[in-house]
Write a structure and sequence with these properties.
alpha+beta, four-stranded antiparallel beta sheet
């Protein structure tokens, strides 16, 4: 089993594999020590945790800034209920953030024209 197959078997994560391959190139592929692998694994875990935190914060910011009523019969928009939508209101930073959240599977884009993005949150399975 070569090094790349071993990485695929252990992590099954594309970003981790890219990170490790870069480290392997600098350490002459056949001379990577176990101590080095432990540091790499710890760094990957920390980066993945930070990435999840950043996505959560971005989702909360977009929820506060872009949540609007879509159905006038609703008394208030809620993430679990119907009658709401997300609207970037043609602001570039909101539109880019909504596209990024959609790329990571947290948002469904319903309509998009230039800077105007309309979407809704992905419903979490319970």
């Amino acid at each position: 089993m070569d090094a790349i197959e071993k990485i695929d078997e252990i992590w099954k994560i594309r970003d981790a594999k890219t990170f490790i391959m870069a480290g392997m190139e600098t350490n002459m592929l056949g001379q990577v020590t176990y101590k080095h692998w432990g540091k790499v694994i710890a760094k990957i875990a920390r980066l993945q945790e930070e990435n999840d935190e950043f996505k959560e914060v971005l989702q909360n910011a977009i929820n506060q800034a872009c949540l609007v009523w879509a159905d006038e019969t609703e008394t208030a928009p809620t993430l679990a209920g119907k009658g709401y939508k997300l609207d970037s209101m043609a602001l570039t930073s909101y539109a880019d953030a909504m596209r990024l959240l959609a790329k990571h599977g947290r948002l469904i884009i319903k309509k998009e024209v230039g800077r105007r993005v309309i979407g809704e949150w992905v419903k979490k399975e319970r």
